[in-house]
Specification:
Strand content: 35-45%
Radius of gyration: 23 Å
Largest sheet: 8 strands, antiparallel
Structural class: alpha+beta
Length: 337
């Protein structure tokens, strides 16, 4: 009888131990990348924590928001997606991380209706109507690839650029690859513009290209210690309009010094690109606005013939410290190869 009781107790303890291990395993944060489809697009997690969301239904263009850095802090501005005390509330079309162009076949996919409402509030109604009349949308068509694993996540999508009159202007194909290390989060953003719907004119515009809007605390005008530096040694306001292989914004985010760097790949259209890098927190790799960014340069507008395409390739690195601490020079050499 005594042996039977002991055997029963051992069985109960073994079962409890196995159940506890199973429960612990079930509750453990998953390792590596995971992507979940949502009503608004996709959510990307890394090691069980949010990395970013690819949002397709909240504006006239897709964008990534929030974008979380290696220490768990948001590293792009929240406005206009969220209202955060102390942030700059300007340029509502600056949606975290995105691509846009003010002159696509005579239409504007850079700005959005919220911007026009803000800018023309005190102006003539007909001026507002004119601005609305040339507003375009970058409409998500489909996800071609959604894949993820321990080391990376990949999103491939197709988008159409559509004028306010409903006419399709061109399309793009995007490949977004997300990776992570202990000290960085990395987003490779490759975008191919295609004249899928006939010839399309891409104008020389200051407001065009691949962009990130950093937190207000990281901006120079925020006067909290934010800085700009590029691969050619230009600093702060002097980086505007200059061609460079990369540009870094860095500064305080809460109690840490963090940085956001965009690298421009040698195979990207018109590398090294001119940069629309503004001290208030915007930086845009803009190969289109050559004359708009440098009055001595030739007009960069051109016609993309039906079926032709151009490729834009960039890597965004979210890192600790400034460009020296993050060894951006070495990161550029690795990326460029």
């Amino acid at each position: 009888m005594k042996n039977s009781v002991s055997s029963l107790l051992r069985s109960v303890l073994a079962f409890a131990l196995l159940a506890g291990l199973a429960c612990s395993s079930a509750n453990a944060a998953p390792k590596g990348f995971q992507i979940k489809k949502t009503k608004s697009g996709l959510t990307v997690n890394y090691d069980g924590e949010l990395f970013t969301k690819y949002v397709i239904d909240q504006s006239n263009k897709p964008y990534l928001y929030p974008v979380i850095g290696p220490t768990g802090k948001p590293m792009t501005r929240a406005y206009p997606m969220e209202t955060i005390e102390g942030e700059q509330h300007d340029h509502p079309h600056h949606r975290s991380l995105w691509f846009g162009h003010q002159g696509v076949g005579g239409f504007d996919s850079w700005h959005e209706a919220l911007t026009i409402e803000e800018r023309f509030r005190k102006k003539k109604p007909e001026d507002k109507e004119k601005a609305m009349a040339v507003l375009a949308s970058t409409k998500h068509v489909s996800f071609r690839v959604i894949s993820f694993g321990p080391k990376r996540a990949v999103i491939e999508s197709v988008n159409d650029y559509v004028g306010s009159d409903g006419k399709k202007l061109m399309s793009d194909e995007r490949k977004i690859t997300l990776t992570a290390t202990k000290d960085t989060r990395v987003i490779d953003f490759d975008i191919t513009l295609i004249a899928s719907h006939g010839d399309v004119k891409l104008d020389d515009k200051k407001d065009a290209g691949f962009s990130v809007r950093v937190p207000t605390s990281m901006s120079i005008t925020g006067k909290q210690g934010g800085r700009i530096y590029n691969s050619e040694g230009h600093k702060d306001g002097d980086a505007w309009g200059k061609r460079a292989e990369w540009v870094t914004f860095w500064g305080p985010v809460e109690d840490e010094t963090l940085g956001v760097t965009i690298l421009n790949h040698p195979k990207s259209f018109r590398h090294p690109t001119p940069w629309h890098a503004r001290t208030y927190g915007l930086f845009t790799a803009n190969p289109f606005g050559t004359k708009s960014l440098d009055k001595t340069a030739e007009d960069g507008g051109f016609v993309l013939k039906k079926g032709e395409k151009i490729e834009l390739r960039h890597r965004v690195i979210l890192h600790k410290g400034g460009p020296d601490a993050a060894n951006i020079g070495k990161a550029w050499k690795v990326y460029s190869k």
